[in-house]
Fold each of these.
Amino acid sequence: DAGVIQSPRHEVTEMGQEVTLRCKPISGHDYLFWYRQTMMRGLELLIYFNNNVPIDDSGMPEDRFSAKMPNASFSTLKIQPSEPRDSAVYFCASSFSDSFNSPLHFGNGTRLTVT
Amino acid sequence: AQSVTQLGSHVSVSEGALVLLRCNYSSSVPPYLFWYVQYPNQGLQLLLKYTTGATLVKGINGFEAEFKKSETSFHLTKPSAHMSDAAEYFCAVSDRRRLAFGKGNQVVVIP
């Protein structure tokens, strides 16, 4: 299995531009999570999906952030417009169990820099 | 809501010495507990987990952790540190609805 695949690995953009981050979960996993990691705030859960349906988006910081999962093998996290404070590493993770008793499998992340 | 406390953002340990990373949690229900490791430029990987049963849990790379309900702790240990253990370590707790991570411990191994 190739694991969770995220693209791009690095993204540098100017303030005000739209940014789209992509994720392909592990086949057969029906839970998908988007996390943001910064030095100041650590790992923050932004949103998670079950069977392609958003379950909890309470961690999405603002309306500038949106996430979709059009099918079981693809998800996007979009920031429009981007701001310098959005600079962080964004991780996608997937798992196959509810109740969070199975491990999350993380991608290698997308390092976003907004100038 | 559940939460995790990891004290000491940076931990230095000599090669061959004991590694001890402390984790205290709060949860309103019996928790599921996890330790994850993150190597540079990579995502998190599971080291070990506790859900039910035996309170001493063994994980990969010689790590183990013990669930102590009375102390609300899940400390991570390894008897002898190796250079390859240099990484960031995260404790996490689940109340079956959400998973909360601690701030992490950056472990530096001194030759």
Amino acid sequence: AQSVTQLDSHVSVSEGTPVLLRCNYSSSYSPSLFWYVQHPNKGLQLLLKYTSAATLVKGINGFEAEFKKSETSFHLTKPSAHMSDAAEYFCVVSSNDYKLSFGAGTTVTVRA
Amino acid sequence: NAGVTQTPKFQVLKTGQSMTLQCAQDMNHEYMSWYRQDPGMGLRLIHYSVGAGITDQGEVPNGYNVSRSTTEDFPLRLLSAAPSQTSVYFCASSGLEYEQYFGPGTRLTVT
């Protein structure tokens, strides 16, 4: 069994300040973990993925995430938010098969 | 390389009507899947396929049928539309490390 909990349904930041989106997971196996971004009325785009290589994963658009097995966490960060980062973000887990489990999503608002 | 394409983008149906949502991918991926997205619930898996001729049910399969006659295409059929099927539908195909590539979605309203 696997599941994902995104700890914040909504995060609001000022442009130029750091962004932190929190994700905890559970998995019976060594998981693969992903973050996806969805801009309004668009499909989902893969930001980054963890697949048992380096625990610090760098993705597109300056995002990165750290896999912490002891804390069962995979938090997403960005040092400096941009207006274009306003979107919904999904943390996703796979127990190394093709069935993914999605978190409920975190909506990010960026204030000018 | 178009990735994953879906048609139509928007559709309005009356209760009881049937229709097919089309999905195609040009990445030669074996695994394809259909999700529905409802507010506050993330994405939920409807049906999936691990290759041509092989399909299986996901988390919320009732009211939907699929078939997979080719690697490229994976249509989703609504047999008798109900208002509870109003949603945004996404098709996806998977790469070798289980990451999924999503189409742009179909926004369906059932009245």
